[in-house]
């Protein structure tokens, strides 16, 4: 996919800036330092180049959505930001720390400040909702039992599940389980929360609840949120800034309105969910008529 040279704006900048899809506008004193700053990121899986020379910023206090077709590297990006994977080239700074330079204890300390709601974030099935949320607090803090109880109840209140605290995970609906996992993800008061496909498998009502919750938690708790999702419209509705990535590069970025207005064919196909376009519905092959008129059996 060639770069479409889409219009873009420095995330968090107060006035639009015109750049190519590859480059970031020069730092301005009015733009606060991003919480996550990625420069020249290259990451390969064997012979597959997942990212090549990628620059990307996540602004503090914002909800940033990362979108793109399946297999384009969205989950990989989150794993690189959390230090679960190491880049082949380039730098990833989180809150001013270059994560490649951190030793394991430093990395674990930093990770405790990042809440993660990954698709596979299963609740511990033998523990009640309360104990699932209490788990990271028991592991990583010295809170007294009465203080711990208060913190857990406040986290559960924030996701609307205080009344469900004694239920076991098997008694929760899919949406409730996702919210309980979210309460656990915010138990340690992270500076940032990373959502990987948070709406997968949710009915429209649960999805609406989760969407509102992501925005509300971000603003009420002063978080920074990164949301990776295929649900273009819903995610765009709560995002301050969008990145659309494809084949290792950013092909569009900006506010939802700016990306919506991007008239490149690729972005139109992706944002509109069109079955055909630059990303083809048909696997490459000869024309249908030619295939049908062929005499051979195969
Ligand atoms: N453990 C692995 N070993 C080899 N290749 C991998 C591995 N994990 C991911 N990949 C490859 O890296 C690329 C990016 O994968 P990734 O899961 O980050 O994409 P994604 O955009 O999150 O996809 P989806 O939207 O379907 O979840 C894909 O081509 C995938 O096949």
TrEMBL record:
Family matches, as InterPro entries: AAA+_ATPase, ABC_transporter-like_ATP-bd, ABC_transporter-like_CS, P-loop_NTPase
Keyword Oxidoreductase: no
Keyword list, A-Z: ATP-binding, Nucleotide-binding, Transport
Residues covered by region (Disordered): 1-31
Domain of life, source organism: Bacteria
Recorded coiled-coil stretches: none
Annotated Pfam families: ABC_tran
UniProt biased composition (Polar residues): 16-26
Organism (species): Thiorhodococcus minor
Keyword Transport in annotation: yes
GO MF annotations, alphabetized: ATP binding; ATP hydrolysis activity
Protein name, as recorded: ATP-binding cassette domain-containing protein
Residue ranges occupied by any ABC transporter domain in the UniProt entry: 36-272
